[in-house]
Amino acid sequence: MKYAKLKFFIFSLVVLLAPLPLAGDYLLNVLVFVGINGILALGLNLLLGYAGQISLGQAAFFGLGAYGSGVLTTMYALNPWLAMIIVAVCVALFAFAIGFPVLRLKGHYLAMATLGVGVIANIAFNETIDLTGGPSGLSGIPNLSIGDFVFDTDLSNYYLVWGFALVMMLLSLNLVNSRFGRGLRAIHDSEVAARVMGINARLMKVQVFTLSAFFSAIAGSLYCHVMTFISPTTFGFHISVELLTMVVIGGLGSVYGSILGALLLTMLPEMLRTFHDYDIIFYGLLLISMTIYMPGGLVSIPATLRRLLPARGSNA
Amino acid sequence: MDFLNQVTQFVISGLATGAIYALIGLSYAIIFNSTGIINFAQGEFVMLGGVLTIFSLNVLQLPLLVAIVVAVAVTTMVGLVFERLAIRPLKNATPLALIIITIGASILIRGVVMLLWGKDTQALPAFSGNSPISLAGATLLPQHLWIFGVTILVIAASRMFFHHTISGKAMRACSFNRRAANLVGISVGRMVLLSFVISAALGSLAGVIIAPLTMTAYDVGIMLGLKGFCAAIMGGMGSGLGTVLGGLILGTLESLGAGLISSGYKDAIAFFILLLILFIRPQGLFKKGETERV
Amino acid sequence: MKKLISTALVSFSLLCLSTAALAAAPIKIGALFAITGPASFLGEPERNTAQMMVDKINKAGGVKGRQLELITYDTGGDATKAVQLANKLIKNDNVVAIIGPSTTGDAMAVIPVVEKAGIPLVACAAGSKITDPVKKWVFKTAQNDSLAVARIYEQLKKEKKSKVAILTVSDGFGSSGREQLKAQAANFGIEIVSDDTYGPKDTDMTAQLTKIRSSQAQAVICWGTNPGPAVIARNAKQLGLTLPLYMSHGVSSKKFIDLAGDAAEGIRLPSGKVLVADLLPKSDKQKASLMAYVKDYQNHFKAEGDHFGGHAWDAVMLLKGAIERGGDTPEGIRTQLEATRNFAGIGGVFNYSAQDHAGLNKDAFVLVEVRNKDWKLVK
């Protein structure tokens, strides 16, 4: 347990100090988006990695969070912080409501149902032109601010987003090591066995689904205030696939893995820039080979290495 | 009277699109039934059919029929290679791993096509001209007749294959219980390969016959694949009439929705129907309920 | 004495070297285009044209003795990426100006970034919102869709057609066009009797066209980019729709005729003059630039220089003009851009001012009709 606290402390330190060598570099801007993707990946990981429920529709909650905050702060001039809280709560309630019918499904059917929710949400963003500005997008969204301090530079947005990310990581870490987290893992292994032991699987699945939606909505609000402009194309099926990839590559069932996955996949287009058009092929190959050869994700590398290397003090 | 004509037109256009969804749905069902895998790359096989035909026609200057055969053959090879390289190594993978692999494969195939043939939309000439045909107050194109014709042929062929040939029956055996099929001497590995081959061929054929109507590009596979999957679910993932009906119903409802309710929400209507079916009758419209053994 | 000579020699050589160093420092211009993704039909010709023009300028000695360096990034039509890449151009590559992006969505996302950083942006996207209201650092070269709409409505008014059905695609381009179609209808005495949309990937629009056939429309205006309008043209032929069919400038390329086949016959649309460059009278101010562009693109890329690549042509040449007239800092370039008058480009004749950063009027568009698989001017 102490080891876990130390790990988190070191990680937070790295996050807090990272911008220092990067002042004035555009990478800082990229890291802001890594933070947002990280929060999204955290939410999906709780649902997918721990509870074992596939969701291809995270984009819906991400978009609802972004548009909710965007519309409330532009059309109704609501305070952005207040809007964020209201939107996150509303999205969570919505997720709770549809969670019951949706999470009765399993495997591919669940994947398709969540995909359906995602597509319907995206179409709604596109068509409700009077509210959302439709395909042309919504602009003029204010930055977040505390008193006179406005979060409108890369540096301030970095600390804002990563502040949220660290809090949510802490929350997730505590959650997975609690009774609730153990219950989730029991459901993942065998839902029937878990039920037999008295775990209310149905309710727990919906609860983690709601939490994941809550995380996504917060990420959405942060996104809209950082960009000050949003459009429906950002919240489509491809983002749900990207998130899935981040969680899988980083490591299912690992909080740090989600962040690692988000980091890698947000930076990957930068690293692949030399390949120009070839990056989409590389992306597909990466997905396939990681799933076949390294199903535990990148965070499993230390464990795999430990297994492969000869043990210290053995009679080898 | 005019309203009736309108509705007839909606229905006929919907049936034509629905027939394509039905063919694609059949491909999903065939693979699912013998392997339990949902092949998210199925839409790309459809895309390959159209794109390869255009390539063979325009660049290789082959006559239309030969071009179609070449396209279907090459796509079948792709399906084969895909099964060998990506599915075979994962004998006991979780559904999630399989979903991700097939999604990865679809991205890969799309990327390769984009690099080789560009991102432009391309048109395939209609098989027998473009003169509209009048039918009960609505109009069709000859290509629609081709679509209906090919779909009926495929249904008949698949019925014959799955119920009257050894290989077909062996595949059905695999779908009922893999272990038992293995025990009676059926080579499950070969059946899996065969199912991918058939699905790829079917998918590419669907792509070829619809390309003259809708034109094709490297990314048409995504939506077609999704809608075909909806058709398969509506039909309960059966390799027969259920899926076909599911596709036809989906296409018709979509067209009626676009015409009578709102064209902007057309896709939303299709997915909404899917959600309703998943919530109320996940075993599909035509199957009896399934029980799960623990 | 020796010391004096050696000091003189050293100072002289230092002076030469520094002048050479100064002269060699290239002017960095950033470019953001949607080279891959759904808007690649915009980004690719734009990237090709921009690179071609910069190479041409450099070969002729550069601008004021300095070479131009074009740094291009691919946004993939993704607004988030566009913002990240704009930041990269400004903070890491230290560009003095940015050309592009290709799509209105990307442009709207990038505007806050350039406004904050004080870097001039010459966008190649069509949305009116980009320069209306006017933003200090943002200019555009693509014609406003409001001008295209005005052209079509003008023709319809001439032909005494007052009831119109509109069919627009549900993306940024289509919805912007739809806004304009609705806003200007009253000015030309036109009533919109049917207002439908279709999705960018939709493959069958017979439902919408069937509805239009039963309405009282006297003409149909379709606003979208390939392949949708081609499908609509074919569907219209299939349904036996005889109403005049107008498209938008989004399909002003030969590709549309290829895709629509026989169904394209008789379709009209407003187009930038580049499509009919050879049909223009010699007196047209743009003729020289247009013919040169078409020839250059054909030589370089073995394809037709089209309307979209032209946006990049204009952006590069406008920047060149601004730098020549005295600006090589962001502020200087911006001031000179705003002072551009009577620049005969591919998209039209540009006249920027403090109140107008779009610079074109409706003469930027001509109305063309498809006849025998080729374009013809409609007088």
Our measurement of the CA-to-CA distance between the termini of chain B, rounded to an integer number of angstroms, reads: 57 Å
What's the helix-strand series of chain C? HEHEHEHEEHEHEHEHEHEHHHEEEE
- Biggest sheet of chain C: strands side by side, in what order? 2-1-3-4-5
Pair with the biggest interface: A-B, 42 and 41 residues
Order of helices and strands of chain B: HHHHEEHHHHHHH
For the sheet with most strands of chain C, the description reads: 5 strands, parallel
Which word captures the global form of chain B?
globular
Helix content of chain B: over 70%
Number of helices of chain C: 12
Please, how many helices of chain B? 11
User: What level of helicity do the residues of chain C show?
Assistant: 40-55%
| Approximate strand percentage of chain B | under 5%
- Numbering strands along the chain, what is their spatial order in the largest sheet of chain B? 1-2
Q: C-alpha Rg of chain B, in Å?
A: 19 Å
Question: Rounded to an integer, what's the Rg of chain C over CA atoms?
Answer: 23 Å
Structural class of chain C: alpha/beta
Distance between the termini of chain C: 81 Å
The overall average pLDDT of chain C, rounded, is 87
Give the oligomeric state.
heterotrimer
